[in-house]
Amino acid sequence: MTVAHSVRVHRSDEELSRDGQLAWKIAEVAVDPVAVDPDVVEMIVNRIIDNAAVAAASLTRAPVSSARAQALDHAVSRGGAGAGVFGVTEVTSPEWAAWANGVAVRELDYHDTFLAADYSHPGDNIPPILAVAQHVGADGAALVRGLATGYEIQIDLVRAICLHKHKIDHVAHLGPSAAAGIGTLLGLDAATIYEAVGQALHTTTATRQSRKGEISTWKAHAPAFAGKLAVEAVDRAMRGETSPNPIYEGEDGVIAWLLDGPDAAYSVPLPAAGESKRGILDSYTKEHSAEYQAQAWIDLARKLHGAHPELADPANVEGIVLHTSHHTHYVIGSGANDPQKYDPSASRETLDHSIPYIFGVALQDGGWHHVDSYTPERAARPDTVALWQKITTAEDPEWTRRYHSEDPAEKAFGGRVEIRLANGETIVDEIAVADAHPLGARPFERADYVRKFRMLAGPVLESAEIDRFLALVERLPELTAAEVRELNIVARAGVVDAAPNPRGLF
């Protein structure tokens, strides 16, 4: 049975005991030797495939090339054999592999998601945990246990603690979850994991300006940085170093000064001792390379494109309103009050967080492409700009309620569209969840993850390399330490060489 842990701010003179702190409760979950359920193992395999797919598609993009170059400028640290870097055969120190691979996974905004009180991409746990596994020589079974913990902790924190309303970036939940997952992987004791969790949280709290206005390339780097810091936090904790505590509940801690304040209280659900870690099964991946709250809207636009092809011509449309949740309206909708969301010269990262742009393009094209839908030429097309400017969002209390519902059957990330035509008619339609969602029209299963991998990796990996990786990862729980080190993707000759290779300090 899941246990709801009460978390509140304590004055320094209250002397909150270590075993009463959230960081300790997280550590207790991490050290619990409970077996990983078969369906959880199956989903972990799916998500490793998914991460490799989106990483492959981003190998030649500038932020990924930059991060890879930084990583390869660092030698393997003395404590192990090093960890692989996506795209190449060279290895580097595990924290730098976590950095490079984390950027590759995150660059296209195309992997898994979990949305509740806050946002998350729990697949961001995979690069740091896998990097440490490769460095220390952990086997597949240990890697599975570590990843189950990483997913569980991040998803449970996201269920309970909202960072967004205080403009704190969601990677503040990733630092602790990755540290806990690494702790499970390594078989560390609770005291060591507790210190690592505290240090990881302390160093990964930052503002959400990375996802506001003209969104920079740092958006892809932020979770990779959190993963890198989690690796370093574990290293420090293993050396006996301690961390600020109580990190969540302290009088000058995260809750008191960065979140709901000194009078705040949260209820954080964590698995009880002996209870399986099944959080990953509540997460979902993306069929389209766009912010998750845009997934269902792309599917609805695709449907409307087929049923009403006349909507592609802005001359036929007077206005379009997407009635949706608070989060969608204020983060990727017109409620954000970001003029950049309507700017044809905006960055890819900005367009990825503009539902007016995304819905307009998908309505015209009848689909979405991870490259073609974001090109400057596509964004600047006059008919697209004309349609795009007619699209706004509005918060609907019912869709906000459904967004926050704890009932999976009614939890929703879409909304209702009202399209006013120039001839006076109105078209109304709605969608609750994306087609690829577990409750959607076409839920993603193993074959879909494999298809996505083959589609995205095909242009940059040899077919034999694609087959090799898939055959290996599908045996994940049985892999030896040597085979875990082979859980990497190597680009075909010339691909990485043709990518940007910027030089910096290192």
UniProtKB/TrEMBL annotation:
SUPFAM superfamilies (alphabetical): 2-methylcitrate dehydratase PrpD
Entry keywords, A to Z: Lyase
Superkingdom as given in the UniProt entry: Bacteria
Entry's EC annotation: 4.2.1.79
Top EC category: lyase
Gene3D superfamilies registered for this protein in UniProt: 2-methylcitrate dehydratase PrpD
GO function term, MF aspect, one: 2-methylcitrate dehydratase activity
Reaction catalyzed: (2S,3S)-2-methylcitrate = 2-methyl-cis-aconitate + H2O
Domain MmgE/PrpD C-terminal: 288-476
Domain MmgE/PrpD N-terminal: 21-265
Keyword Lyase: yes
Keyword Lyase: yes
Family: Belongs to the PrpD family.
Subunit organization: Monomer.
Protein name (record): 2-methylcitrate dehydratase
Source organism of the structure: Microbacterium radiodurans
